[in-house]
Specification:
By secondary structure, the chain is of the alpha+beta class. It is 41% helix and 21% strand. Strands 1, 2, 3, 4, 5, 6, 7, 8 and 9 form a nine-stranded mixed β-sheet that branches. Helix 1 packs across helix 3. The radius of gyration is 17 Å and the shape is globular.
């Protein structure tokens, strides 16, 4: 049972770490928030099927973050951000990692899990493989696979609040951050927080582009 939090107008709910028992509620939030996303529309062209499979598909990222990283959630479950530490030299068995030889161990496992979320849909594998190819492997960093606000709650500062909490940590630790923007609106948000387009889009066959973005820590 979820806890109801009263929110005053103009005041954002508090942010805390999500608990494992909140998994189903957060996976539904992810699924609902990405229904209108252009990349999700390409991966799952049929809207009814998209709605049915979304929680399972995004649950792959959620399970990885709950296991190997962390999930920040607003108290009223109106927004959430998933983070994975990617450490050069670690393997997927040790936690999220990218191989020191340039091979992306963690993403191989992620790609297979995404493909298994919707068997027979080759586009799930394609998006996993192409984003893995674009993902930097030469430096440790914090990876943001998903950040969402509930439908009807976008544009209220929730995404910025979730980002700022972790980016301040990045600056303290001297840790870069990485993500893929799936639409121009989110790309603009990330740019306001110091992320820079790496220069080469992820081009889905016959689909929309994605923008890999990197943020150097600020001194």
């Amino acid at each position: 049972m979820s806890r109801v939090t009263t929110v005053l107008p103009g005041v954002l709910p508090g942010i805390r770490r999500a608990r494992k028992e909140e998994r189903e509620e957060i996976s539904r939030l992810l699924g609902e928030a990405f229904m209108a996303d252009p990349v999700s529309g390409w991966v799952f062209p049929d809207e009814e099927h998209r709605r049915a499979v979304h929680p399972r598909f995004f649950g792959v990222f959620l399970d990885a973050a709950l296991r190997d990283g962390w999930v920040d959630v607003m108290e009223d479950h109106s927004a959430a951000a998933l983070w994975l530490p990617m450490t050069v030299g670690e393997t997927a068995g040790d936690g999220a990692g990218v191989g020191g030889d340039g091979e992306d161990d963690g993403h191989d496992e992620m790609t297979e899990a995404l493909a298994a979320a919707d068997p027979g849909n080759e586009r799930t594998r394609i998006v996993g493989e192409l984003t893995a190819l674009a993902h930097p492997t030469d430096r440790s960093h914090y990876y943001l696979p998903n950040i969402v606000a509930a439908p009807g709650r976008t544009g209220e500062g929730r995404g910025s609040a979730l980002l700022e909490a972790v980016l301040e940590r990045c600056d303290r630790e001297g840790m870069p951050a990485y993500l893929e923007a799936s639409n121009t609106r989110s790309k603009a948000l990330y740019e306001r927080h110091g992320f820079v387009f790496t220069g080469r889009t992820v081009d889905l066959p016959g689909g929309p582009p994605m923008w890999p973005m990197w943020r150097e820590p600020r001194g």
